[in-house]
């Protein structure tokens, strides 16, 4: 009896190996060859993206990783089907798991999608001065989930890419230069023309000031409560922005003092009513 059971077991095992063994070998071969081809396709995609993205490594890594992962998932599902496993229920289960993971990580996925938009549309690049989400700074790094900027105070701000992609981004350096506005307030009885000449003299004698796209100019921008508000407008290199702003503000104060032009402080006229 035991010999008969052993014989039946061997027969059944041979039947299983005959029926499924070849399918398993096919599935393994599909995975090995498929993964090799997926990696090669990833390399081809990387070379093509590299040509069109000016060596944007963050974009290259993102697209290549997405391509390889997508291809390998398809290969695994195909291999499972070749092994004789019903793939319909497996795909449904995979879809349900993906939906659950997506709902749990919707914030992170939004950042990934935002990162893809930022890397593709390129509203800014590393080293540019931008203002986004209420922060002004130089772009230090563009990651898949967040972008890092360094403020003038040397603070590093990490802004989620989802917020960046959905918000307003001001790029101050895409043109290679930036306009610097130096505000100056003078008394109402001060000579505006003389003040303009003093401020333009400061700008014209500063080698950092660019003549293109326009010459330095001084405008009256507001008639305030206690001052006539002027603005010296010049174009300079981004690297010179902060130093120029601070140094010119000081130089303007000293020059106006030397020329007897008053910079007023807020004043109020109070009428006392006697009872």
From TrEMBL:
A single Gene Ontology CC term: plasma membrane
Family annotation (SUPFAM superfamilies): Mechanosensitive channel protein MscS (YggB), C-terminal domain (SSF82689), Mechanosensitive channel protein MscS (YggB), transmembrane region (SSF82861), Sm-like ribonucleoproteins (SSF50182)
Compartment(s) of residence: Cell membrane
InterPro entries the record matches: LSM_dom_sf, MS_channel_1st, MS_channel_C, MscS_archaea/bacteria_type, MscS_beta-dom_sf, MscS_channel_2nd, MscS_channel_C_sf, MscS_channel_TM-2
Domain Mechanosensitive ion channel MscS: 108-174
Membrane topology: Multi-pass membrane protein
Membrane-crossing residue ranges in chain numbering: 20-38, 59-84, 90-119
The family this protein is said to belong to: Belongs to the MscS (TC 1.A.23) family.
Protein name stated in the entry: Mechanosensitive ion channel
């Amino acid at each position: 009896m035991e010999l008969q059971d052993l014989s039946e077991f061997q027969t059944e095992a041979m039947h299983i190996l005959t029926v499924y063994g070849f399918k398993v070998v096919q599935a393994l071969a599909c995975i090995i060859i498929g993964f090799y081809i997926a990696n090669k396709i990833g390399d081809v995609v990387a070379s093509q993206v590299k040509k069109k993205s000016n060596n944007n490594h963050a974009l290259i890594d993102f697209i290549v990783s997405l391509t390889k992962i997508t291809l390998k998932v398809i290969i695994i599902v195909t291999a499972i089907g070749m092994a004789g496993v019903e793939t319909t229920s497996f795909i449904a289960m995979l879809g349900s798991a993906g939906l659950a993971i997506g709902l749990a990580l919707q914030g992170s996925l939004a950042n990934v999608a935002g990162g893809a938009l930022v890397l593709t549309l390129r509203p800014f690049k590393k080293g540019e001065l931008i203002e986004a989400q209420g922060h002004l700074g130089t772009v230090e790094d563009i990651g898949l989930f967040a972008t890092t900027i360094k403020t003038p105070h040397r603070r590093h701000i990490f802004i989620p890419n989802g917020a960046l992609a959905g918000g307003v981004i001001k790029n101050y350096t895409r043109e290679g230069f930036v306009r610097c506005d130096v505000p100056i307030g003078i008394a109402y009885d001060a000579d505006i023309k003389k003040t303009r000449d003093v401020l333009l003299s400061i700008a014209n004698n500063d080698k950092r000031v660019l003549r293109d796209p326009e010459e330095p100019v001084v405008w009256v921008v507001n008639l305030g409560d206690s001052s006539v508000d002027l603005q010296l407008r010049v174009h300079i290199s981004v690297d010179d922005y902060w130093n120029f702003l601070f140094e010119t503000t000081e130089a303007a104060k000293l020059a106006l003092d030397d020329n007897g032009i008053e910079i007023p402080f807020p004043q109020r006229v109070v009428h006392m009513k006697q009872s």
